[in-house]
Every structure is written in C-alpha cells, then in structure tokens.
Amino acid sequence: MDVIPAIDLLEGRCVRLYQGDYSLSQVFNDNPVEVAQQWVEQGATRLHVVDLDGAKTGQLVNQAAIEAIAQAVSVPIQVGGGLRTQASVQQVLNLGVQRAILGTTAVEQPQLVQQLCQEFPGRIVIGIDARNGLVATHGWIETSKVLATQLAVQMQKLGAAAIIYTDIHRDGTLSGPNIEALRSLAQTVSIPVIASGGVSSITDLLSLLALEPQGVTGVIVGRALYTGDISLREALRAIGPGRIQDVPPNIDFSTFA
Predict the structure, then answer these.
(1) Residues 8, 53, 167, 171: which is the catalytic one?
(2) What pLDDT, on the 0 to 100 scale, is given for residue 208?
(3) What CATH number does the domain containing 164 carry?
(4) Is residue 8 annotated as a catalytic residue, yes or no?
(5) Whole-prediction pTM value?
(6) Tens digit of each residue's pLDDT (9 = 90 or more) over 196-205
(7) Active-site annotation holder among 2, 21, 30, 129
(8) Residue 134's domain spans which residues?
(9) Catalytic status, residue 129
(10) Could you give the residue ranges of the DSSP H alpha helices within 76-198?
C-alpha cells in the first residue's frame, strides 16, 4: 500500500487544517519545496499536493509552489484544488504533475470529467470529500446532497483512474480513519481507492492495510507526519509494497479484519 505524504498549500506555505476549517490552519513550513524534498528523502514514492486557496476560489492560486515542487522532486505528484476547467487541468499537468484531482467539478460538471478522462487517460483522479456520507464541495465549504458512494460509481463509469476518499470530520484530527466508510466505498467500485483523513498511528495504517485486498491501495497522511506521530520511514516499512515482514511482531492482525 502506498503511503502518500500530503502537502497542503495556503498562501504559498505548507499548512494543515482541522476538519477542513480555513480559520483553524496551522503553518508547518514556509517552504513547501523543502518539505517535498524531505518526504522524498525519507522514501515517499508519490506526493499529494492541495491548493487550498484554489479549492476556495475555484482557480489555481499556488501555481508557482506546485511547479517548484514538481521540478524539485523525481517522484510523481498529484494535485487538487481549484481544477474546474479543461484549461486549469491542462495547466497543472503542464507543470510536470502526473495526476489531476477533481472534486467540485465531479459533482457539478460530470460531462467535463468524462471529457478530461478521455483527453488525459489514467491521469484524472476524483477527490470525494464527505461529511456524514454526503459530498462536500468548494473547498469543503458547501455540502451537496450527493452520496459519496453514488458519486464514486458515476465517476468510475466516466473513466476516473482512482478515488481519493476523505472523511472531513476525521481530517486533521488524528482520530483515526473511517474504516467502515472506506470499506463500503471500496466494495462499491472496482477502481483503486486511496484513503485520507484522521490517520494518527502505525496501528491506523495497519487497519487500512486490511482493506487492501478490497481495493484500498494507498493512504494519504498529513498532520501525523508533521507532528511526528508517524515516521514516514516506519510507515513505509510497515505497510509499503512488499514490506509486510517488517511489521513489529507484537501486532495482532486479527484485530484489523
């Protein structure tokens, strides 16, 4: 399973929000490129970058920082936040980004998602951010009436390469991932599902690893990496591809089934 460090950009700085609340942002580093290089040095094979300003305004804002990250690291990066037109998706992919993440667009412009999936096969990922099972949009400020599972099925049919599922109530809280919601979503679609939100420990990662056979192929980790609650190197040893033998011997996998 991939462990994907998150780099959330707000006014060009690396921050973390609490439950998606912009007023509860915490700055971890003024230099996101430095952060990206740090995660890659520790073994990250992919980075997850979010333009928080873009998510709120509906257009790319932190383009300079995204481009600098893409040029500074050799691993693939995936970017979301404010990608709501064909031009903005083309723009971000031209920066050297491997995959573009669509959120609000998936709810409001499914026909555009279909067009983009055809134009950029394998490079369009859908970010489904849910609050009590309903999809949130516009930087999590608004909540739609669309069920997360319904949107996932629709996006799979349109050609999405993967789904990133975030439980907003868990995001930035270190309270653990929503295992049941992830299991339900993974059982509903056949494309890969990437978990996001609430991961606080190696134990949380192991609980997600139990969902890997059902299609949960990766996990995005944010605050826990920045606070030191999780070491990226230890996380990769524990659940990275082919590294299950490195799990501490006192872990009882039966508790995660």
Answers:
(1) 8
(2) 95
(3) 3.20.20.70
(4) yes
(5) 0.87
(6) 988 999 999 9
(7) 129
(8) 2-256
(9) yes
(10) 86-94, 104-108, 110-119, 148-158, 179-188
